[in-house]
Amino acid sequence: MIEIKTIEPTKENLKRFTQYQIDLYDGNPYYVPPLISDDVATLSPSVNPAFDFCDSVYYMAYRDGKPVGRIAGIINRQVNETHKSHTARFGFIDFIDDPDVSEALLTKVEEWARGKGMKKIIGPLGFTDLDHEGMLVEGFDELSTMATIYNYPYYPCHLERLGYKKESDWVEFMMDVSDSIPDKHNRIAEIVKKKFGLKVLKYKSRKRIKDEYGRALFNLINDAYDGLYEYSRLSERQIDYYINIYLGLLNLDLVTLIVDKDQQLVGVGISMPSMSRALQKSKGKLFPFGWWHLLKGLKGKNDRVDLLLVAVKPEYQNKGVNALLFQDLIPYYIKYGFKHAESNPELETNAKVQNQWENFSHRQHRRRRSFYKNL
Asked: What is the pLDDT of residues 282-331, one digit of tens each?
């Protein structure tokens, strides 16, 4: 018999909620665990400013007193108001390969959503686009990343059995790092600089980049991503929150800002050494030795770089601004010994983003999907 329990969002409960996933994937060579402290913060109404406009509920499934699954239900009121919809989300979903467990979890979230007046449910999605999203449907034998979900191949089969259908797909690419800047990128970059009066900015001080362009960076993300699938615009409180979390972690050599003649931000590219192996060794914990593995991941030898973010102001999109980003970043990739670069998920319909990889040796190595069900 499956028992579903509501999980109150206390720190200790959320630690157990997060730990369940780490235990489920113990020994899997492709799974990359989150930092437990990060997921606890994301799921905590007292910490995450997304709760200014989101509602949530958390459930865990038990059999004979042992946890066998988990799920979160989320309603993003801001996105619903923008799209004039009544849509709930499910996320943070994990379960053993037992159809009774997955059905019990999803049925419970569907009931919660109907009780809130929702007419449709989609997922897996988080509170906003800075959370993990999309269930893996291809690429199960590829090492995951810190920014993406890994799941067993049986997950999508369980959803389809329960009547869930494809809503949207994202694709991901692995590129080989060039030995030099491609000639085409150099030519386009120089033309774009002259035509639009653009230039690249680099920083050595995290405080300076926070003070001078921290808010502008996240406002640019809002402008560049607005209109994409289920995008949730970042609020002022969220921007303050993420400035403090993210900008302090970055290697500034791998952060490129592009500004116009008035020093207004028009493009940004943010990369980071792959933290996948380091997170696997940490097992989701900073202490007692997790911090050491993470530090080695950031500072040590690494042949893979994650392309965390590329954003260009809408009026400059499709005008070659991306060539400036790669003209600046590729020499740093070479300097740090990166051999491969991995993209973040890109909507399969977003051809203008995918076209930027055409000048690099690349392969599509993963696909992930959001599913929907009418309630």
From this structure: 887 664 445 444 655 566 678 999 998 899 999 998 898 989 999 999 99
Which pLDDT score is estimated for 182? 85
Question: What element of type H or E holds 4?
Answer: strand 3-6
Q: How far apart are CA 103 and CA 98, in angstroms?
A: 9
Torsion of CA 279, 281, 284, 290, to 10 degrees: -100
3-class DSSP assignment, residue 108: helix
Instruction: Count CA within 13 A, CB hemisphere, residue 52.
Output: 14
Which run of H or of E encompasses 354? helix 351-354
Asked if 373 and 114 count as a contact pair (C-beta separation under 8 A), the reply is no
How many C-beta atoms lie closer than 10 Å to residue 39's C-beta? 22
DSSP state of 24: H
User: Mind listing the pLDDT tens digit for each residue in 75-123?
Assistant: 999 999 999 999 999 999 999 999 999 999 999 999 999 999 999 999 9
Partner residues linked to 87 by β-bridges:
120
Asked whether 61 and 3 are in contact (CB, 8 A), the reply is yes
